Fold these 2 entries.
Entry 1:
Amino acid sequence: MYSELGLYIDGAWKKNGGGKGEDVINPATEKPLAHLPHASTADLDEALEAAKKGFAVWRATSAYDRAKIMSKAANLMRERHDVISKIMVQEQGKVYVEARGEVLVSADIIDWYAEEGRRSYGRIVPGRAKGVRQLVIQEPVGVVAAFTPWNFPVLTPARKVGGALAAGCSLILKASEETPGACVEMVKCFADAGLPAGVLNLVFGVPAEVSEHLLAKDAVRKISFTGSIPVGKHLAQLAAKGMKRTTMELGGHSPVVVFGDADPEKAADTIAAFKYRNAGQVCISPTRFYVQEDVYKRFLARFTEYANGIKLGDGLEKGITMGPLANSRRLDAMDSFVADAKSCGGKIATGGKRSGNQGYFYEPTVITDVPDDSKIMTEEPFGPLAPIVTFKTFDEVVARANSLPFGLAAYAFTTSTTTAAAIGDAIESGMVGVNSIAISTPETPFGGVKESGHGSEGGTEGLGAYLATKFISQG
């Protein structure tokens, strides 16, 4: 069972786009699931015209009525979660329990934005002269072009769709060509909930061609992108030519700091589970581990034990705790990281190689004794690799944690309230989890600093990203 794929433009499904297309591959079996049509230039122009018409209708719809449609879509996602989750497992590789959680949280995101859109308040500023009323109001920014990656096929689109629709914007969503089915099913929920034609359009194609075509159009006033830093920089340059607003959620390389006063076994259990979620293919995945010398051996032993207990396999099978990587490119990348680590003197505590001869499976891997200038410590691995090294002092580990140009997420473990406050303040990151991995919820801001991007999704910040401020002085 898999989705019937197509483009969604102006309230209608197009099973055969005017462009070319590609096969969607199951990463657990390496077999094709379906053929995905690509949008032609004419399809993109049709989507743009539909979004312009849709924006006129949707911005004139009250926040109250927008919320009703969005909440209905969220409830349909919950009703259909089992089907959507199984489609996601087939195309992306994550295990069923993770896919199910993603779909249900995505429905929560849509619900939260539906309610928050009803609270997009303005304000009255007292005038300096008698009889002058000064009004500050929030208006939807316009047509949005949104681009989402393959690692969270429903969650990432839900963040963008939720924020934009709640603000009164229309969208052209270009979701990942590698994992289109689950997003198609999400869009069906909005269509079945009664979303007016043209408000939400879904297209697929060669990413560079789609983005360059849409970003050149004056009607597109906002770009929201989740993906790699090089692509984000390129899109930001294109957006700058038209002074288009941008939200950029780009890559990271999340440090984990385990202080000597922490419970090393408890910390290892918590962060190892988070590390190997979605086979490490998570932008906020913990990716470089600094453990104070006193507890290093205990932390390493427990973390390695956890990695060894992971059961690899098809995410739809019972008892499987980690699925394959999403594509063959990630396998090659893992081999490159491991080879470099070994050449730098790194030691493989467990894993370090591919698993089996069918599917894109890679063993959960723990690496020790790697220098700070090794590839694994300076570049985001985006896979099931965990380099674990020691540190001596607070100031030393802060300098090492902040040494890279990334600043998306960071984690720390300590039983000292003083240290907890100090590390939260000292880390240069958009999100910091201290004794917690709960840094991504519908009601809280999600975004990075430095080269990890700018702007936030989630929380009131995520709604504000799709609103323009207007000041009216009325005499």
Entry 2:
Amino acid sequence: MTIGDDIAARIRRLFHAEKWRVGTISTQLCIHHSVVRRVLDQEHQVTSAPNPTTLIDVYLPFVLETLNQYPTLTASRLYAMVRERGYRGSESHFRRLVARHRPQPIRSSEAYLRLRTLPGEQAQIDWGHFGYLQIGRAKRPLMAFVMVLSYSRRIFLRFYLDARMENFLRGHVAAFTAFDGVPRTLLYDNLKSAVLERDGQAIRFNPVLLDFAGYHRFEPKPVAVARGNEKGRVERAIRYIRGSFFAAREFKDLEDLNAQAMVWCLGPASERRCPEDTSLSVNDVFEQEQPRLLALPQDPYPTEERITVSSGKTPYIRFDLNDYSIPHTHVRKTLTLIASPKDVQILDGSTCIAVHPRSYDKGDQVETKEHIQALAVAKQKARQHRTQGRLTAAIPNAEDFMIAAGERGYVLPTVTRELEALLDSYGAKELAVAMTEALTAGSPHPKTVCLALERRREKQNRPPPIAIELSEKARKHDAPVRTHDLVNYDQLTGDADDESSDA
């Protein structure tokens, strides 16, 4: 807080002439007490006792010598040191004295040149953290990949669920495609995806990034350590994104958010005034810059994640918090997993043995029906455990329901089989609600669950579920019966009438 000279003079007069305390002056003049103390300290006056320096005079040389040797030593530690040496003054008064005598660092104001680049010469890249997304049981970080063309200030924005190397490269490829070209130099912060190690001017780049840069023929360049001003364009772009795009933004999922981001980049972000030439929009300057960009390579750079995985005793491969099924003939093998944002492929050598849609949930079991059926055929006794496992994975309270059904003496294989049929007919969400109602009612039986499902269906005015597949027994039971041709009976009747008439 800054005060005028008249207020400062008034503070000094009230303190020295009228003998007001600091708190009284602060209350009556509506000024913070720290401002009052600062005014009094500036004229080398203390604010507590009439003769405050008497106690500290003996210890002042020790305090000054210690502060010169350790300028950042805390006042509380220094107070403890002088207390051990006999000082009996108050800690608050000692803190004010230390603040007055502590050596102040010499601060020099550094001037910066405005950095200008040629069209198509440079782009700046950085990650921005935008909180978290809850996907099922998984809490995923929401990371924004941002690339800004330094000349036109054209922004590319794409959101990902982590900042790993694969998404880092995918962001580059998507940005190059959006710009329809590649800048000659890409400027990075000292993040691990770009720089693995740095010692002065010696820089060890990430070899994956070097290979990617060679493929697209651009030069990767990191900024100097603690010199964030060198990539100020992308830093300001991230602030602009937070305030202009992301604030109060509603979206259904990551795909919807990225679709909105693309519209925003081509719309409001490109229609704003260009900082270098306010008579033109960013889009106008980008049209001038785009022909100066390097041409895109003919084939896109592969950005799939490729890792080596080992299968255990069960026919599943664990990847990114979820399990993906494989044929049971490939258990206890070393396999190759290739993951893209949309799907997961599992290979045995060069042979693809499984393809699954990628899940970003946690603890999910992504299965192919044929894998499980083949294992069930090979191990008929595993059917009950398989059904229980499926119910437990789909319904949170399935295990409690099974325990309660077992305590009632119900036959668990029959219970699991009937619940699995209800799961196929009504879905996991409706079945979970119905099982909760059955547990609450104290009747953990599939019939109770079925009644609850039907009540909810009728209340919501939904059509009854239709069975897609019939068992062999049901198919024989419901087989159509051919009726006998009634013409034969008519002939018999006609013959009888003729005989009676003849008689």
